Amino acid sequence: MSSRTTSISILEQARDTRDLAAWRTLTGLYTPVLQAWLAGAGLQPADRDDLTQRVFEVLVRQLPGFRHNGRAGAFRAWLRGIVRNLLREFWRDRPTPATESVLGELADPDGRLSRVWDRQHDQHVYEGLAAVVRAEVTETTWLAFHRTTLEDQPAKRVAEDLGISVNAVLIARSRVLTRLRSLAAELLD
Asked: Within this chain, do residues 96 and 169 fall inside the same structural domain, yes or no?
């Protein structure tokens, strides 16, 4: 994905199962998300790996028919539904004393699980996008962005610490944010 700036989303590109770059991007961004969701559902590492693979198998078959409704989180909600169905199947096939409790939690009557999964999704997707952008910029640019945006440090202090002007700090922050937004827009979610 490194310098791809097209307005065509990764999801649109991944509809073509032969587009290996789009699938690498999609799996790179979503594997950590899926692993976190599945770990939260109590799965052991080997089972998480198996179910992650099964989720991607479902995506290969069903993504061409997925229609994004334009609302933020539509793909995530659809993906979450796939994961829930696979988890229900998993736990039904392995009854334990905790199975009923897990299945009840997966029903998510109060929306708590969805909120947790949404936060995990956002964090993992940000981390994936940030890794791409960080590889594209200088260390000074990244530090200026990180310290002013994520650590909420004053631009003047960051400029002094990095030995650059306040204007250079603000430009660096703006460039990184612009690139992050550009990459995020490609996901169409």
From this structure: no
Question: What CATH number is attached to the domain comprising 175?
Answer: 1.10.10
* pTM tops 0.85, yes or no: no
pLDDT in tens, 23-54: 888 888 889 889 988 888 888 899 999 999 99
Q: Domain range spanning residue 123?
A: 1-136
Please say whether the dihedral angle defined by the alpha carbons of residues 14, 11, 84 and 45, taken in this order, is positive or negative.
positive
Residue 126 CA to residue 184 CA, distance in Å, equals: 8
- The per-residue pLDDT for 7 is 33
d(CA 131, CA 67): 28
Q: Which two tokens stand for residue 167?
A: 């204007």
Residue 165 identity (one-letter amino acid)? S
* In 15-73, alpha helices (H): 20-40, 45-62
Contact at 8 Å (CB) between 181 and 156? no
Q: How far is CA 57 from the centre of its chain?
A: 18
